[in-house]
Amino acid sequence: MNRFIIADPKKCIGCHTCEVACVVSHQQASQDNLAIDQISEQNFQPRIHVVKGFSISTAVVCHQCEDAPCANVCPNGAIIHNKDYYYVDQDKCIGCKTCVLACPYGTMEVVSRPVMRKLTALNTIEAFKAEANKCDLCHHRAEGPACVEVCPTQALVCIDRDALEDMVKERRRKAAFETGADLLF
């Protein structure tokens, strides 16, 4: 079973700290070698997004589906399953947006990243490459997802098989004991 992140809208305060942690975490792991203070609006591309409603806010993040529709439709096989999560191999991604259309949760997106294109041996220009962007559970971090670690209200939790089974057992126990005795007979 894949690990995944769940967000509790009852605890989320909409502070966007998770988004910042995500960008910083992936910037440190990237090959772009930009310093943290060089992150700008153009290259601020979190893999988690806070959505705010009238009276509630919550984070929306990839569900790490077991039979991921995004991976199934990718023509280049750029969305890869590794043990208990999916990630995008940017070297294979062609930015076709098929994964965005296939994702039932709206968590896949295609972003533009500046790249240097070589025109001739002496001439290069800055261009933009479209590439898929999704949560990869910060697989490059031994500590796990950065968003979960920094959430000030613990609204984000990374769930694995054991945690899911414990949650189900607790809910069953709670439901069983909250049922009134007069309803049983």
TrEMBL record:
Record flagged with keyword rRNA-binding: no
UniProt xrefs under InterPro entries: 4Fe4S_Fe-S-bd (IPR017896), 4Fe4S_Fe_S_CS (IPR017900), RnfB_subfamily (IPR050294)
Domain called 4Fe-4S ferredoxin-type: residue spans: 2-32, 84-113
Gene3D superfamilies, per database record: 3.30.70.20
A Pfam family assignment: Fer4
Family matches, as SUPFAM superfamilies: 4Fe-4S ferredoxins (SSF54862)
PANTHER family from the UniProt entry: ELECTRON TRANSPORT PROTEIN HYDN-RELATED, OXIDOREDUCTASE
This protein's UniProt keywords: 4Fe-4S, Iron, Iron-sulfur, Metal-binding, Repeat
MF terms (GO), sorted A to Z: 4 iron, 4 sulfur cluster binding; metal ion binding
Protein's recorded name: Electron transport protein
